[in-house]
Amino acid sequence: MFRLTSLNLNGIRSATRKGLADWVRAAAPDCICVQELRAQSSELSPDLAELAGLRGHFYCAEKKGYSGVGIYSRHEPSAVRRGIGVPEFDAEGRWIELRFDTPARRYSIISGYFPSGSSGPERQLAKYRFLDAIGPHLQALRAEREFVLCADVNIAHHEIDLKNWKGNLKNSGFLPEERAWMTQLLGSGGLIDVYRQLHPTEQEAAYTWWSNRGQAWANNVGWRIDYHLATPALAAAARSAQVHKAQRFSDHAPLTLDYDWAP
């Protein structure tokens, strides 16, 4: 099995202080894709550059204390690709791709962090620009190789994907345009929402993010906005999925899937 975890850290230093390394050691993923590092390259000290024996690869935002993505991997990649070729978003550190090319298989593991539009209209417009750019990028990549994109997409696709869907119909993360983009990506775009493939009707156990406001965590008023999005061949190899809620490292929970294929 190949165990792959995705987690928005809401700050890598904060998450490690809360015991992330011990959790990774116990969970034993082959790769853990992380988002929202909130650290510069110079701040990634040796104890952050590796995590429970996994080597880290990172793409930090230019702005201090903001965004950034990484992948910790047990296996050495053939190549590392950073960014999607769009300066506006590459400056924010939103995409890192590890390529693994062997005689038997060519595939990529990707960590992505999609913008949130919740802070205001300008950021919502930026989010739409990102979606316009990332769609063709994913299609071009799909034509070239198999991949799994682990991402905080900042979109709940269906009503089942958030607790209070009626109250969020006009809020970023559940807007009709965002949900339509997801529908297209998972339709004609040819990608698979792997968790939903395994658990098509799961609701409350599927949430991966909870607002820090009020009693959202205590009352499980959550959203499912973290995904494994895979090409069909890799998605077909998925055997189990779990959202880990026993220990908290951020306002997101780790999402782990086991795939029946070897690197």
Summarize the SSE layout with pairings.
Layout: E1 2-8, H1 12-17, H2 20-27, E2 31-35, H3 46-49, E3 50-51, E4 54-59, E5 69-73, E6 79-82, H4 87-90, E7 95-101, E8 106-113, H5 121-144, E9 146-152, H6 176-185, E10 192-193, H7 194-198, E11 209-210, E12 222-223, E13 226-230, H8 232-235, E14 238-243, E15 255-259
Parallel strand pairs: 1-2, 8-9
Antiparallel strand pairs: 1-15, 2-5, 3-4, 4-5, 6-7, 7-8, 9-13, 10-13, 11-12, 14-15
Describe it.
With 263 residues, this protein is an alpha+beta fold. The chain has a single domain, classed as Endonuclease/exonuclease/phosphatase (Deoxyribonuclease I, Chain A, 4-Layer Sandwich), CATH 3.60.10.10. It is 25% helix and 28% strand. The protein has helices at residues 12-17, 20-27, 46-49, 87-90, 121-144, 176-185, 194-198, 232-235; strands spanning 2-8, 31-35, 50-51, 54-59, 69-73, 79-82, 95-101, 106-113, 146-152, 192-193, 209-210, 222-223, 226-230, 238-243, 255-259. The N and C termini lie close together (9 Å). The mean pLDDT is 96.
Distance between the termini: 9 Å
Number of strand segments: 15
Residues in helices, as a percent range: 10-25%
Tally the structural domains.
Answer: 1
Total number of helical segments?
A: 8
Biggest sheet descriptor: 7 strands, mixed
Attribute tags:
263 residues; alpha+beta; Deoxyribonuclease I, Chain A; seven-stranded mixed sheet; six-stranded mixed sheet; 8 helices; 15 strands; 25% helix; globular
Summarize the structure in short:
With 263 residues, the chain is of the alpha+beta class. 25% of the residues lie in helices and 28% in strands.
